[in-house]
Amino acid sequence: MRGRVGTWLALLAFGLVVLAPGCQHIPATDRDESRYAQAARQIVESGEWGDIRFQDELRLKKPPGIYWLQAGLQQALGLPDTIASHRLPSLLGALGALLLLLALARRCLDARIALLPPLALAVSFLLGAEARLATTDAVLLLTTLAAAGVLTLRLTGRPWRHDDLILAGALAAGVLVKGPVIILLVAGMAAVALLLRRAGCLRPLLTWRAALLFVTLALPWFWLIAARHGAAFWQDSLVHDVAGKAIGAQESHGQPPGFYLLTLPLAGWPWAALLPAIGWLAWHRRGEPLVLALLAWILPFWCVFELAPTKLVHYVLPTYPAFALLAALAWQARDDWPVWVRRACIALLLFGAIALAVASGMLVDRFGGAVWASALFVGTLLVAVAGFFWRKAALTWLLLGAGLAYAQFWGVLVPSLQALWLSERLATLTAPWRPACDAPTVAEGFVEPSLVFELGTDLRLGVPGPLPVGATCRVRLSREPLAGDHLRPLGTVGGFNYAKGRAIEVHAYLESAQ
To answer: Which of 62, 420, 452, 466 lies in the 20 to 30 Å Cα band around 232?
Structure first.
C-alpha cells in the first residue's frame, strides 16, 4: 500500500516539477488565452455568471465551463487577479490527466511498465504548453481521458466500477468545457466497436442513472445561456464556431491533411520517437483487444481533424494518452523490433532533440532571450539523450531528463523572450501614471487581447476621441508617433506581434486636457 501511495505522490511531484514552472512568469499570451482569462475576470468583477463577455463583446462561441472554473477557483481560493490564477484549472487538469492515466495503465498494462504512459504524457511538449495556458485544452484532456478510458476498459473486459457514471460525468464536463468535441471522440470509439461487432460490451454504459447524471450536469448551462441570449447563442456556438471549423479554415489556421502527423514528432517528443515502433506493434498485434481499443481511440478522431480545414496542433491532444499507452507496449516489445524500426526510432529521437535545440537558439536570437537559458536547455537535452544511449536505452532516464529540460524551457527561457511580451512591458511602462489619470487608457494600432488583460477591462481600443469632459489626463498608446503640447512622451516599446507575425513599435504618452 505504501509503495502504491509513493508512486502516486512521486508522479504528482514530477508533474508539478515539469508542468508548473512558467505558469507564474510567462505573461498573458495572445489571443485565445487572454480572451478566456479576461472574460473570467469580468465574471468576477460583475458577478454575472450567465453573461460572459470580453469587454463588451459576448463570448457565446464556447461553453462556459472554463470561464466558470477560472472565476470559481479564483473566488474560492482568494487568488490574486493575475494570469497565473487563471491558468490554475489547466495545470490541475494536466496533473489530473497524469494520475488518471496511471490508474488506466495499471488496469490494462503490465505493472512493470504502468508508470511509463503518464511519464511520457507529462513530458509531451504539447501538454507542457497547454498546462501553462488559461484555455480549455488541458481540462478537456482530463475529461476525454476519463471517457475514452471507460470505453477502453469495457472493450478489454476490465471495466471500472460504476463506469456508466464516470462516462456520464466525463461527457457532461467535456461538453461544458468544449462542446461536442468529447462526443466526437466517444462516438468514434463506439462506431469502431460496432464495426468490429463488439458494441455489446458497451451496452452496460447506457443506463438511466447515467442519462440522468448527464442531463443534470450539462443541461443547466444550455438553459442559462440560451434563456439569456436566445438565438444568438446557438448561432455563434453551432453555426459560426463548430460548423465554421468543419467547413472552412478559420482565423488563418487552414492546413492540408497530414499536418498533425508531420507535427507529432515534435509536439510529442520524446515519446513520439517511438512512432515507428507503435506502427509496427499496431500492425503485428492488431487482433488484441487492448491494441484495437487504443486504435479506436486514435484513428477516427485523428482522421476527422486531419480532414477538417481548420487545424491547430492542440486539437488532437485527446489522443496523446492512447499514444502513450501504445508507446509503453511497444517499448516492452523492443527485443522483437526489426532493425528498421530501431533505426527509425533513433532517427526520430535525434531529429526531435536537434530541432528543439536549434529552435531554442533561434528564439533567443530573434526575440532577445537569455542565452544562458538556451544553453542550459540544450545541455539538459544533451544529457537526457546521451544518458538514454549510455545507460542501454533507459527510457525512464530519457523521460526524466526531457521533463527537466522542458521545465527550464518554459520556466526560464520563454519568460526571457522580452520581444514577445509587448503588453506586459507596456503595462509596466505606464503603471506609474495610469492610477493618477481620471480617464481610461486608450490604445490604437496595437489592440491585442493581452493588452486588455494587462491594462484592465476599462481599456479603450481604436481611434480615440477627445478627453471626456472634466477629465484631466489619460494614458494613450499608439503605433504611430504623435505630437502636441498636450502629449507627454512616456517611452517606446518595440517587439514582435506574434499574433500578426510582424515587428512593431508602440509609443506611450500621457495626454492632458488642452
So the answer is: 452
Residue 21: is the preceding peptide bond cis (ω within 30°)? no
**In the chain, what are the domain boundaries?**
2-251, 339-418, 421-512
Query: Is pTM, for the whole model, over 0.70?
Result: yes
72's grid cell: 470559481
Is the distance from CB of 317 to CB of 143 less than 8 angstroms?
Answer: no
- Given this model, what pLDDT does residue 119 score? 98
The pair phi, psi for residue 61, each rounded to 5°, is -70, -30
> Residue 238: its pLDDT value, please?
59
Q: What angle do CA 107, 194, 99 make, to 5 degrees?
A: 25
Which residue pairs from 196-201 have beta carbons closer than 8 angstroms and sit at least 24 positions apart in sequence? Answer: 196/292, 198/155, 201/154, 201/155, 201/157
Helix, strand, coil percentages (3-state) for the chain, rounded to 5, are: 65, 10, 25
Q: Are 463 and 491 in contact (CB under 8 A)?
A: no
The DSSP secondary-structure symbol of 242 reads I
Amino acid identity for residue 487 in this structure: L
β-pairing, 473-478 vs 442-444, is parallel
- Characterize the bridge pairing of strands 57-58 and 53-54: antiparallel
| SS3 of residue 232 by DSSP | helix
Splitting the chain (514 residues) into consecutive groups of 10 residues, what average pLDDT does each group show?
80 98 98 97 94 90 91 97 98 99 97 96 98 98 99 97 98 94 97 94 96 92 72 59 54 78 97 98 96 98 94 97 99 96 97 97 95 97 92 84 97 97 98 96 97 97 91 96 95 96 97 88
| Cβ atoms of 395 and 331 closer than 8 Å | yes
How many other C-beta atoms are found inside a 10 Å radius of the C-beta of residue 188?
A: 21
Per-residue model confidence (pLDDT) at position 391: 72
C-alpha cell at 484: 502636441
What was the pLDDT predicted at 245?
56
The Cα–Cα gap between 315 and 149 comes to: 19
- How far apart, in whole angstroms, are the C-alpha atoms of residue 493 and residue 98? 40
Task: Collect contacts of 427-430 with beta carbons under 8 A, ≥24 apart.
Answer: 427/454, 427/455, 429/490, 429/491, 429/493, 429/508, 430/455, 430/475, 430/477, 430/490, 430/508
Which of 2, 22, 249, 7 lies closest to 114 in space, CA to CA?
7
* H and E: helices and strands count for the chain: 21, 7
Per-residue H/E/C for 62-87? CCCHHHHHHHHHHHHHCCCCCHHHHH
Going by the DSSP 8-state scheme, the letter that residue 254 receives in this structure is B
Question: Which of 157, 140, 4, 136 shows the shortest CA–CA distance to 62?
Answer: 136
pLDDT of residue 343: 97
Q: Beta strand 473-478 with 502-512: parallel, antiparallel or unpaired? A: antiparallel
